[in-house]
Amino acid sequence: MNLRESFEEREFQELSPYAAHSRNSRGRDRYEPECDIRTIYQRDRDRILHSKAFRRMKDKTQVFLAAQGDHYRTRLTHTLEVSQIARTIARALNLNEDLTEAIALGHDLGHTPFGHSGEAALNAVHPGGFRHAEQSVRVVEVLEKEGQGLNLTWEVRDGILNHRTAGKPSTLEGQVVRLCDKIAYIHHDMDDAIRAGILSEDDIPITIRVVLGDTCRERLNTLIHDIVEQSRGTEYVRQSAEIAEGMRMLRELMFANVYRNPEAKKEEEKAKKMLISLYTYYQEHPEQMSREYRNLIGCGEDKTQVVCDYIAGMTDQYSMHKYEELFVPKAWAVY
Questions:
Q1: Is the pTM of this model over 0.90?
Q2: In angstroms, rounded to a whole number, what is the distance separating the alpha carbons of residues 306 and 234?
Q3: Distance between CA 125 and CA 209 in Å, rounded?
Q4: What is the pLDDT of residues 72-85, one digit of tens each?
């Protein structure tokens, strides 16, 4: 028995009967020989961590567009916080922590520059629309590794695809990530909003604080403990009705005071127009895209889709640089 097989046996002996065991994975689209050290989900986690799309998230907006402060979240730090919360819950529920981590680390790989405003821009102009969860799957299936994709397991891709509120993940590990994504962004977006002076603890109604707690730390602790208490030993990942309602009220507060706040969102229309201009330009000039995207068209991928892939993969700073390069006049340099 090699190390991987011993890990798989340990999973079988120690994990919940409702957990996704590595040895029972539905596998990959393309056959690969097994690693003798790592389980199949550990390999998926490592592939995501080493991907280019993962590294680019460090310069993609979470809430505050291209925030200059050192301590505001980016799409990457959001992803790491989702992973940390999800691993804590998965471990407490005796679920597969490696699968949970892989889904969490990969769930936002397809997100656009400038957060949900970028997603809205591409959704408005791209035929068939744009949804970042589906784009995240496209990243791992097609776009990474020069069009080869990462060849991840079915369970990881299912969790990534279904991480949004309306999703229905097939594994409990995917259900954990789906809830933890909301918990993480509500918690840390509120922390960022308080730091930015857009919101204060006094703005949170007493009805919410009585249920969830008086500080960001207390509320996060309440949400995590409730999921563990409600889900342990069951075949569902769920919240109590009271805590779920408290989180819904907190989310509504965030939309009213932060996500739709004119001060926080005043640059979003500019970002949308910029990305739409870039999308239109590269539809007319696909030869100006990076080599790997030109190669995708050469291999038969639809040009319109590849242009969408290119824009979605940009970081905030890179998209601004390309816009300036293409559309902002430059001074005559000859004297």
A1: yes
A2: 43
A3: 41
A4: 889 999 999 999 99
